[in-house]
Specification:
Strand content of chain B: 15-25%
Helix content of chain B: 25-40%
Oligomer: heterodimer
Helix content of chain A: over 70%
Order of helices and strands of chain A: HHHHHHHEEEHHHHEHHHHH
Largest interface: A-B, 33 and 38 residues
Largest sheet of chain B: 6 strands, mixed
Bound molecules: adenosine-5'-diphosphate, magnesium ion
Strand order of the largest sheet of chain B: 6-7-8-3-9-10
Strand order of the largest sheet of chain A: 1-4
Number of helices of chain A: 16
Shape of chain A: globular
Radius of gyration of chain A: 23 Å
Number of helices of chain B: 11
Strand content of chain A: under 5%
Radius of gyration of chain B: 19 Å
Distance between the termini of chain B: 37 Å
Structural class of chain A: mainly alpha
Shape of chain B: globular
Structural class of chain B: alpha/beta
Chain lengths: 389, 253
């Protein structure tokens, strides 16, 4: 049963994508660690950290694709789940600083000493323990998604209204996390990290492992997402996207279907945030900014929604472009992003991967039709070719 | 009183004095209507008579303001939602054909199959030999075996209507509600649909809403004429179509 579930996931392109991701996950750190800095094939640490960041964004886009591309829920608040996962990791990293902070307090992080905290707030307890913190990375975003989804899907909030309340959710969290008395470092967020599991977060070796972990988690989540969308559940999901009332009148509980998918997706976003924070060295309330969540939608749309692989490519390409543009022509970046979104919506509504898939499918069908005409095939092969993805 | 409880005893579907209004407009006005087990019933009536609204109420999409809606004598449908009612065994075909366009004909039927519909049951579902045989049987019934790998989006309007009927069969309902199944069909398709529905009605109750009088005649069953949210006349097609009120309100228009 479970083996069938996983086996279905391993369709050709998914295996290829996982192979490439894991290859990158090993090759990039190897070139960083094992080649001398003046070598032509050496990858500098800053470049590895930058690409590691893209992999985290790719995981966030994949998470969004699961709810948007397959279930039709346009979440404009996925940045919130990403940020919560990031804060959970940040809290663990803060607790690892111990007495090495500027104020040298053995228990309280610097910002708490500065704000006259007398003791550690209750919700910081347990975060010195890695396993607990990692559990929180998925539990906290998952719980928020569960509570939010429970009410939203049960009261059948749909379409634009749902998108708006997801924006409101991330905006509310942005305001809350800005406050000093929330206990998460306010405006400055959490930073000045020292160790993760006893290894310096600055060390090349640690960065290499974090990079590999990003590629690995992205691969695992890609396999999970593929298993979900290729199961009967995944077909129901697409049914919800295309004809929600038909699904309901067939006897499915649409609210449970949406809730499950939303929660799984939020957990993936949380993992992405947790891997992001040690690689960039900071998490602050800015990660909750509504614009961040909207950018994720752009990456997903550019790559091709409802394709799983497309959003990964979209996230890497758009962020690569962003790094280049903000370096070369900082003032036009936002215009470039807006222009890109409009161009994709107008000319490539299926995104990059969706358009390629569509083209391949059409060629396949044409070829089958030609074969049939020559008498080498029959009507069923034509139909099969059209049915093949 | 005694008579009423007797009709209730053997009814599959029982509506009594059902009223619902939208912004003050009475879409259903004290509608009473009974379907017996195994019955095939036709419903006619002018546009806006409340035929679709009646189906909305039976299937849990709309809640009535007042009135009783019972399934199998005991189950109060006004307290259930769409998914519950579908699982109780009431299937519904929409007025506008609604199938999953980005799935193949086969997948459409597989999704509709009356199996456990929970999240985890569907995640770990694998097609069993029994389910496969059932889908193949339905494909034969709706005459679409040769198109089983076709995307539903590529079907003609009439074929979509049939696929939707096939999906309802897969659901194995005790009661099937069919809203204007032959709208937009060719004459040949219409005749075939009448045969199909009569076939289906052998093993379950079916309620068909239709405007096409030829089609109704072909079905040859008891007819209910609705107008302005309540029953105008009920009986054989000849009886109903000769009723002066029906001629004035519907046929004569
Ligand atoms: N959800 C709704 N909101 C407002 N008015 C509605 C709604 N559903 C139906 N109506 C109105 O109720 C009347 C009956 O509609 P309907 O049941 O669709 O008629 P029929 O199917 O017999 O043509 C129409 O006047 C329609 O406009
Ligand atoms: Mg109608």
């Amino acid at each position: 049963m479970i083996s069938g579930f996983v086996f279905r996931a391993l369709e050709g392109r998914i295996v290829a994508a996982v192979g490439i991701l894991l290859g990158i996950g090993i090759l990039v750190p190897a070139l960083n660690l094992l080649t001398p800095p003046d070598s032509a094939i050496h990858i500098p640490t800053y470049a590895m950290a930058l690409f590691g960041k893209y992999l985290c964004y790719a995981l966030l886009a994949l998470a969004l694709d699961l709810v948007w591309g397959y279930c039709g829920i346009l979440s404009l608040g996925h940045g919130a789940f990403f940020a919560l996962g990031g804060y959970a990791m940040g809290m663990y990293l803060m607790r690892q600083i111990g007495p090495r902070g500027v104020y040298g307090n053995p228990i309280l992080p610097d910002f708490m000493v500065f704000l006259n905290y007398k003791e550690l707030p209750w919700f910081w307890h347990g975060f010195d323990w890695f396993i607990f913190a990692m559990a929180m990375v998925i539990v906290v975003p998952g719980l928020l998604a569960f509570i939010f989804g429970w009410f939203a899907f049960r009261s059948r909030v749909n379409g634009v209204y749902l998108s708006i309340i997801t924006q409101a959710m991330t905006y509310a969290l942005l305001l809350a996390f800005f406050r000093n008395d929330m206990g998460f470092g306010g405006n400055n967020g959490l930073t000045d990290f020292k160790d993760i599991l006893g290894f310096s977060v600055q060390a090349d070796g640690t960065r290499a492992v974090l990079f590999f972990m990003s590629a690995l988690m992205l691969s695992l989540c890609l396999i999970l997402a593929s298993a979900i969308v290729r199961s009967k559940f995944g077909k129901v999901l697409v049914g919800v996207r295309d004809a929600e009332s038909r699904v309901r009148f067939l006897g499915f509980r649409v609210e449970n279907i949406k809730l499950f998918t939303f929660v799984v997706s939020a957990m993936m976003a949380g993992i992405a945030g947790a891997l992001f924070v040690p690689q960039v060295g900071i998490i602050n309330p800015g990660e909750f900014a509504p614009a961040n969540s909207i950018e994720v939608v752009v990456w997903t749309a550019v790559g091709g929604r409802g394709t799983l692989i497309g959003p990964i490519i979209g996230a890497i390409l758009v962020n690569g472009g962003k790094s280049f543009f903000t370096g070369a022509f900082p003032e036009i970046w936002l215009f470039a992003l807006g222009g890109l979104f409009i161009a994709v919506t107008l000319f490539l509504p299926k995104g990059i991967v969706g358009t390629i898939q569509h083209g391949l499918k059409a060629r396949h069908a044409l070829k089958a039709a030609a074969d049939a005409e020559k008498g080498r095939g029959d009507a069923t092969t034509v139909a099969q070719a059209q049915a093949a993805e | 009183m005694n008579m009423i409880s007797e009709t209730r005893q053997k009814s599959l579907l029982y509506l009594e004095n059902v009223s619902v209004s939208f912004d003050g407009f009475k879409a259903l006005n004290s509608l009473s209507f009974v379907v017996e087990p195994g019955e095939l019933r036709a419903i006619i009536g002018p546009n806006g008579a409340g035929k679709t609204t009646m189906m909305d109420i039976i299937t849990g999409k709309t809640r009535p303001d007042t009135g009783t809606v019972l399934f199998e004598d005991t189950i109060d449908l006004t307290k259930r939602d769409e998914a519950d009612i579908a699982q109780l065994g009431i299937g519904r075909k929409f007025q506008k054909p609604t199938v999953f366009e980005s799935h193949t004909v086969w997948d459409n039927l597989e999704l509709a199959l009356n199996r456990s519909r929970g999240v985890f049951a569907t995640l770990f579902y694998t097609l069993s030999a029994e389910d496969k045989a059932r889908i193949e049987e339905i494909l034969e019934t709706i005459r679409m075996t040769h198109r089983k790998n076709e995307y539903a989006a590529n079907l003609s309007h009439g074929q979509k209507q049939w696929l939707e009927i096939g999906m309802l069969l897969a659901q194995e309902p005790k009661l099937l509600l069919v809203d204007e199944p032959v709208a937009g069909m060719t004459d040949a398709e219409t005749a075939e649909t009448a045969v199909l529905l009569k076939e289906i009605a052998k093993t379950r109750s079916v309620v068909v809403v239709e405007h096409d009088m030829g089609f109704i005649r072909e079905l040859g069953v008891k007819v209910t004429c609705l107008a302005e949210g309540s029953v105008l006349a009920e009986g054989s097609i000849d009886f109903v179509s000769n009723d002066p009120k029906v001629i004035e309100n519907y046929l004569g228009r």
